[in-house]
Amino acid sequence: MSSKAIEFAQHQQERFVEELKSLLRIPSISTLPEHVGDVRRAAGFIAEELRRIGMENVRLIETASASHPNGHPLVYADWLRAGADRPTVLCYGHYDVQPAEPLDEWISPPFEPTERNGNLYARGAVDDKGQMWMHVKALESLFAANEGRLPVNVRVIVEGEEEVGGEGIAAFVREHGDQLRADVALVSDTEMFAPDLPTLCVGLRGMIYTELEVRGGRTDLHSGMYGGTAPNPFVALAQIVTKLKDEEGRILIPGFYDCVARPTEEELKAWKALPFDEEHYRKTEVGSSELTGEPGYSVLERTWARPTLDVHGMPGGFIGAGAKTVIPARALAKISMRLVPDQTPTEAFAQYKAYVESIAPRGVEIEVRLIHSGDPIVVSTDNPYVRAATTAMREVFGVETVFVRGGGSIPIVGDFVRELGMPTLMMGFGLPDDNLHAPNEKFHLANFHRGIESILRFFSLVAA
Amino acid sequence: MSSKAIEFAQHQQERFVEELKSLLRIPSISTLPEHVGDVRRAAGFIAEELRRIGMENVRLIETASASHPNGHPLVYADWLRAGADRPTVLCYGHYDVQPAEPLDEWISPPFEPTERNGNLYARGAVDDKGQMWMHVKALESLFAANEGRLPVNVRVIVEGEEEVGGEGIAAFVREHGDQLRADVALVSDTEMFAPDLPTLCVGLRGMIYTELEVRGGRTDLHSGMYGGTAPNPFVALAQIVTKLKDEEGRILIPGFYDCVARPTEEELKAWKALPFDEEHYRKTEVGSSELTGEPGYSVLERTWARPTLDVHGMPGGFIGAGAKTVIPARALAKISMRLVPDQTPTEAFAQYKAYVESIAPRGVEIEVRLIHSGDPIVVSTDNPYVRAATTAMREVFGVETVFVRGGGSIPIVGDFVRELGMPTLMMGFGLPDDNLHAPNEKFHLANFHRGIESILRFFSLVAA
After folding, report:
1. Contact B127/B98 with Cβ under 8 angstroms?
2. pLDDT of res. A374
3. Taking CB atoms and an 8 Å cutoff, what residues of chain B touch A242?
4. DSSP B430
5. Residue B247 with chain A: CB contacts under 8 Å
6. How far is A169 from chain B (nearest CA, A)?
7. Beta A199-204 vs A221-222: how paired, if at all?
8. CA dihedral of A227, A231, A233, A239, whole degrees rounded to 10
9. Residue B299 domain-assigned?
10. What is the per-residue pLDDT for B1?
11. What pLDDT sits at residue B253?
């Protein structure tokens, strides 16, 4: 059956890409209140397509509530008529995207999808609209090749809050997890380790995203008149930040490393065998004069298996062109930490908050807020679904799959593993230079099509 | 003659305030390119009024040039027919204002002047449109009381770039200083030490306003994928800032204090005698839990006679609501230093730049830019103009004038003193809680009227 479906997918490549472009034109930026209508429009677009290809029970599930007023809807669909002897696969993706700033660095506008050199450029191209669309198109090809039937039972859940912490889907999993019950979850929101190297991601860092607010004077003050007596919130923030992480990159929060688990020797050995050129990575991916980070750990360890701390922005004061001589009454730092097994967000945030409060500079008041968090995870590689996935990808790519971890966070994966006890396959087709969360995000179109084929082969293999 | 002029001014109080409101409605924010038309409109408004009251040779002097493309015009006027035996007074003020942000902290909108509790609230109310308007209204009252004549020769120069460094007027003074030649300059852009306490300001701090740019990766990067290897420009800026100033407030730039002159013993003694309540100042003016600054110096010394360093804003990265997990490619810090005699901006900037370059963290590139600067000054108190000013204010306020310094910078005062060799009187009528450069800037209207009377008495006294 899969050969007919592959043929269908190959004949429809152009249409699949055009449809994806339509979805990418919707600026479904979940963190910006002014885009709430666009986020909902993207959800509707996907629901309609799921219905069209033959999925059943398609519906939007509202996540907004009194305690979660800015919730965006989940898109749900299923097709459960493959028979009780066939496994059930839960397909997960997200349709929300990161903000597109800085806009002036995009070569083509972020919400006008543009093909160049075999890539499709747009915000969300690979993270995650394009990869989610691979699932939809694999399902469509299987329906088309099999008289409206699928080889396995399938549930689809697509969320609109992944980029803002995924609170809505987490609550849904906690409260209505049985509605997502499946034998395995398939998540395509990660990347391949290298072009042409099929990859399964078997671990993700968790995170806590915080805001640290510092308040000094009663109001903004003139730095001529009050420079020398008024506490400066930015100077205070600078003092706090330098006490959070030393100049070599070690986090200084007491106890922060206590629960950090070392990867197994086997894992470390496998990572060393991966085709990785640190100098190439520095030049083409990071692009800085030097790499930074904890001494004594390789790049892969530092980004996969070590916690980190970053500052994302420092709102407040005067940020226009030119000069304003203000000592601002308040300033903020947006600070996040990536966590690794066996750290927990709750413990890490408590350690961070207590430490920051203990080092608050004189003359200022500070407030530490948790914006969102996600658990770090490692998933099992010893099950038939992993074997089906690696077989499927070997058939498409012609080489063996590598197991890697990811430095980022997909909060829901932790929930699938912990709440629903499901093995989770992170089978992603992005590339390391796809500019996730950055200007000129892209998806290599060959990988979009190879992803569709890998996924439909996977469905056929797990049915066997 | 002054009694007739005083009577005129008293009868016209209401109109004077209404006219000032019209001027305050023009958002002449010199640092923001989008307000360039408003800045010019304010210049025209003042020129028209100077013409109407009887001043001569009224004209706008363009300051924009190839090397100074964002120049705003000077407003010039004179009336030089009092006779060669009468002194010439140069009245200086500025019609440009600071940006009004943060807008949501204004009780009434910044450009809708509103009277409350005897105060006029608006951006520019006291700094400096209201104080400049005192000059115009004192001149109008003298013309009206004296058949269209003034007791002294008067030149008026009003600039539109004071809040952005005053480059245009500085160039004009250098190149055409003879057109401003006078026996004394009168500047009303400072404040009274306390309500009801007439004050002459005899010293000002200088400044250098800089931008420090830090660049890390080639583009914005995802903190999940690159946290642990990519240099973070905000973390680098924090490290630099904490090395610029220690936690007690001492500036750490090598050589920075070498040229700092200690005030005379007499000055320090006079400052100690001023009615100053540090706890009241902390609570009502600064409003922080504690005052900060160099140990071993009083508040007045720290704000008048010691250099300081402040951070005004840190543009870059993500500053919206919510979360974006970006390691920005670049971030900026707007950093200024206040200078005191005998420091010079040139030397201070060179010291700062060399030091910052020497402490740049690994993995980032830095660029240090000078946005503008002004020299620190102290002015003479031993001349007949100072005596006329103190007599005038004693007649109005009933108490003796105190001599203070100011922590802020009025760059042109240094040019008047150095380039034109003019004694300069800084006779200001602001109050310490007038919220200069901050939300809810105000001018106490009683001081507006007492200022007009003091100025017209001063003109009459120097004529005698």
Report:
1. yes
2. 87
3. 235, 238-239, 242
4. B
5. 239, 361-362
6. 17
7. unpaired
8. 110
9. no
10. 56
11. 98
Structure tokens at B106: 């204004």
B368-392 b/e (C-beta count within 10 Å ≥ 16 → b): bebbbbbbbbbbeeeeebbebbbbb
Q: Which of A110-124, B328-342, B397-411 has the lowest mean pLDDT?
A: B397-411
Which member of A78, A96, A128, A220 is catalytic?
A96
**How close B294 comes to chain A (CA, Å)?**
7
- DSSP secondary structure string, B79-147? E--S-TTS-EEEEEEE--B----SGGG-SS-TTS-EEETTEEESTTTTTTHHHHHHHHHHHHHHHHHTT
- Judged by CB atoms closer than 8 Å, whether chains meet at A310 and B235 is answered as yes
Q: Is residue B286 part of a domain?
A: no
Residue A12 lies in a domain: yes
Residue of A nearest to B210 (CA): A323
Under DSSP, is residue A375 helix (H, G, I), strand (E, B) or coil? coil
> C-alpha dihedral over B365, B371, B374, B376, to 10 degrees?
-30
The active-site residue out of B38, B162, B191, B267 is B162
Min Cα–Cα distance to chain A from B235, Å:
7
B119-154 confidence digits (pLDDT tens)? 999 999 999 999 999 999 999 999 999 999 999 999
Does B433 participate in catalysis according to the annotation? no
CB contact under 8 A, A32 and B219: no
- Give the domain CATH number at B57: 3.40.630.10
Min distance B390 CA to chain A CA atoms (Å) = 23
- Render pLDDT for B36-86 as a digit per residue (tens, 0 to 9): 999 999 999 999 999 999 999 999 999 987 777 779 999 999 999 999 999
So what's the pLDDT on residue A1? 56
- Indicate if the pLDDT at residue A321 is higher than 90: no
A441 is annotated as an active-site residue: no
Region A291-308 average pLDDT: 97
Which letter, b or e, does each residue of A19-47 get, where b requires 16 or more Cβ atoms within 10 Å of its Cβ?
A: bbbebbbbbbbbbbeebbebbbbbbebbb
Shared domain check, B153 and B112:
yes
Instruction: Look up the pTM and report it.
Output: 0.83
* A219 and A108 within one domain: no
Mean pLDDT of chain B: 95
Half-sphere exposure of A31 toward its Cβ, with a 13 Å CA cutoff? 20
Identify the three-state secondary structure at position B178. helix
In angstroms, the Cα distances linking A257 to A249, A251, B424 are 13, 8, 63
Rounded average pLDDT over B250-265 = 96
Q: Tokens 């609109």 — which residue?
A: A160
CA distance A230 to A324: 16
Closest CA to B187 of B391, B439, B424: B424
| Domain termination residue (choose one: A374, A393, A417) | A374
Residues B133 and B222 occupy one common structural domain: no
The residue in chain B having the minimum alpha-carbon distance to the alpha carbon of residue A226 is B303
Residue of B286, B314, B333 with shortest CB distance to A217: B286
Is the pLDDT confidence value at A66 over 80? no
d(CA B431, CA B451): 12
Residue A431's domain spans which residues?
A: 2-204+376-463
Q: Which amino acid is at A206?
A: G
Q: What percent of chain A has pLDDT over 90?
A: 88
B308 contacts A317? CB cut-off 8 A: no
Q: CA dist B29 to A22, A323, B102, B110, Å?
A: 43, 11, 14, 11
Same domain flag for A159 and A23:
yes
- Chain B CB contacts of A239 below 8 Å: 238, 242, 247
CA-wise closest residue to B438 among A217, A196, A382 = A217
Residue B329 · residue B356 · CB < 8 Å: no
Task: Give the one of B33, B101, B217 whose C-beta lies nearest to A287's C-beta.
Answer: B217
Structure confidence at residue A322 (pLDDT): 82
CB–CB of A204/A376 below 8 Å? yes
